[in-house]
Amino acid sequence: MLGGSHRSDSSQSWQSSDATFYTAQVVSPAREIDTPDVPAAAATYAERSTAAVAEVKAQLRARLDALPFAAPSEEQTALQASYLGWADARVQERITAFGPDAGYQAVVDMKTAGTKAALPIAYECLRSFITGAMRNPVGLATGAAYAARRPADAEELSTAMVAGVAAGSASYTSDTLLIPAMDRRARVANLPRFQAIDPKILVPDPPPVILEITAEGKRFTRPGENNAPTLAELKAQTYDRRLGITQRQSTLDDKSLDTLLLKPVINAGFNAARRTGGNPDLLTPAGQLALSALAIGGAGIVQKALLETGKAMARTGQLRVPDLVGGEQRLNLFALALPDKTRRPAQWSDAVHFPPRYLLDTGKEALALARQGFNSANAVATTARDLLTRHMLSNVMASFGSMGAGRIITAPLRGGSHIRVAGEAANSTAVVVQQAVQTVFNDTFWNALKAKNGANTSQAARLDNERAALAAEHQRTIERTLEALAEPVDQAIATLSGPTRAGVERAMEEGMRATPGPGPLGQRLRTALETLRTEIGTQSVSIATIDAVCTALREGWSQTFSGVPRDAATQALDGQLQTLTRALHDSEELRQWQSGRA
Predict the structure, then answer these.
(1) From the centroid of its chain, how far is CA 32?
(2) Structural domain boundaries in the chain
(3) Helical pair 458-495 and 179-188, crossing angle rounded to 10 deg
(4) How far is it, in rounded angstroms, from Cα 265 to Cα 314?
(5) Distances in whole angstroms, Cα of residue 124 to Cα of each of 24, 94, 128, 129, 130
(6) CA 579 from centroid of its chain's CA atoms
């Protein structure tokens, strides 16, 4: 509802002035709206979008037509037309944002993503597990291995530094190479992922005309007229509602102060639990690596599952917003966005290819990204700065900070001592609490430093640029070869056409033997060359046609010309065909790798 009282659910506290422009108690129950027949599955995404927009616009008009004017007049009719023009534009924006298949309607509440979000949520949980299982566990295991080679009473500063350096190397591998490679292959697989809807679409700018629904019917007024709110008041209400939406979206995207300690606290609980065991094998490097990977990775799964599932649930993933016909409706705050809207989304049935194909492709993509860090002096400098500063130094600082915080906070449990006292068990209360505290601070420091330093996307950009240049080079080779092939193909076709009648008569007059015509293999070669000439003319040459020409050229030439070896022109033709085949094959291979489909 625009320009009226903004009712909300229990999680919001939006209020408006006393000028109420929609009152649920005085509006009759929503009736079933007759809309034009819309195809269940239009041929293309654009057609489905057009059909969805037309359907919602028809619902708007049917809804307004069912309501009489409170004070009929030509001015009211003109104002309604102005309002509908504004509402039509908002409908277009919402269909574009949600997609034609999300089920957006003019009046009723939207359905949540529900089970459609299961695969995207599972993918996000996998990403979170890998990210968590690669950083701290590697650092803990490396630190344990380093400490095992030193005296029991040795200082722990160097141990924390070694652990931080190892954790930085692991975080560089996951954040810069592995996770980006996974995301790139997920885009190729057309995996849908949650994307926040622009608050300006959910709560649009105030309309030029305010729609008021009363017991007498509908009434249109301009902002500031009579008792209607002014445009400034409407903008203030709009700002407040958008701010509430932004805060909810930021929370579910883990970018809010409300979730600052969510993952660190969950992680601390899991890590503290693993330190309650008294088995000495749990403290070996292998035990530290395995258990901490399960604990930290498992905490990441729990945290990501909570947030991502919240996006797909009505209570947390929806809010009440204007429905464009004087009331309010619940709309989703997130939409499942597809990388390629013209293709079907990835589904659970595709998971059968996950182990052999997705993992292999991800490994290849990660190696390709890694190579981009060493293909120039500038790339090497960027890689070194990213590894040494963004990851290693940040993790060392996080290790120092968390170790100091853990000792200070747990000192009262050890009688004021900042280190373990003599005879203290490996799973004592102080040890468990210190592990939890260090985990909270380590995660918090690392997240803060990572947000401050940003992400390194230069290797991905370099890889995209390299592939774009390679694709352009393939295309240039194809165009040049096609241009060079035109004349040799015409000459070969003329040679294989056999003697003309005039040529036979001239040979007989001169007492010479006429050149024999091509045999069956020669005719097949000529047919293949004519097909190739046609495709060259249309600039759509297929590899199958080139293979047919090359095969016929090799098999038929000697028989056609009675053992005469191929001349230079024929050899050049064969070489150009081989060049074209390689260029087409490489171009198609690159296209399939980038698009994921033949």
Answers:
(1) 37
(2) 461-595
(3) 40
(4) 26
(5) 40, 26, 6, 9, 10
(6) 36
Q: Cα-Cα-Cα-Cα dihedral of 540, 544, 549, 550, to 10°?
A: 120
Burial of 568 (0-12, 13-18, 19+ CB in 10 A): exposed
pLDDT confidence band for 560 (50 / 70 / 90):
low
> Is 50 exceeded by the pLDDT of residue 417?
yes
Q: What is the pTM of this model?
A: 0.83
Which pLDDT tens digit goes with each residue over 87-128? Answer: 999 999 999 999 999 989 988 999 999 899 999 999 999 999
| Cβ–Cβ < 8 Å for 204, 234 | no
Residue 598: which of 351, 411, 343 has the closest Cα?
Answer: 343
Measure Cα distances from 245 to 169, 316, 581 in Å: 38, 11, 55
Residues 440, 528: Cα–Cα separation, whole Å: 71
255, pLDDT greater than 80:
yes
Structure tokens at 560: 């056609």
pLDDT on residue 165: 97
Residue holding tokens 């050149």? 515
Query: Using one digit for the tens of pLDDT, what is the confidence trace for 70-82?
Result: 999 999 999 999 9
> Three-state SS for 334?
strand
- State how far the Cα of 543 lies from the Cα of 584, in Å rounded to an integer: 7
Whether the Cβ atoms of residue 487 and residue 207 lie closer than 8 Å to each other:
no
d(CA 376, CA 47): 46
Burial label for 91, CB within 10 Å (0-12, 13-18, 19+), is: buried
One-letter-per-residue 3-state SS of 276-330 = CCCCHHHHCHHHHHHHHHHHHHHHHHHHHHHHHHHHCCHHHHEEEEECCCCCEEE
Name the residue type at position 402.
Answer: S
Element (H, E) at 337: strand 334-337
Query: Would you tell me how many other CB atoms lie within 10 Å of the CB of residue 43?
Result: 8
Q: Could you tell me if residue 596 is left (phi over 0), alpha (psi between -120 and 50 degrees) or otherwise beta?
A: left
Contact 98, 104 (CB under 8 A): yes
Residues in a beta bridge with 329: 321
DSSP string, 164-229: HHHHHHHHHIIIIIIHHHHHHHHHHTT--EEEEPPHHHHSPPPPSSEEEEETTEEEEE-TTSTTSP
What is the β-pairing status of strands 193-196 and 334-337?
Answer: antiparallel
Q: Which residues pair with 218 in a beta bridge?
A: 69, 213
The one-character DSSP state at 344 is P
d(CA 132, CA 29): 51
Calculate the average pLDDT of the chain: 85
Cα separation, 91 vs 73, in Å, equals 27
Residues 6+ apart with CB under 8 A from 461: none
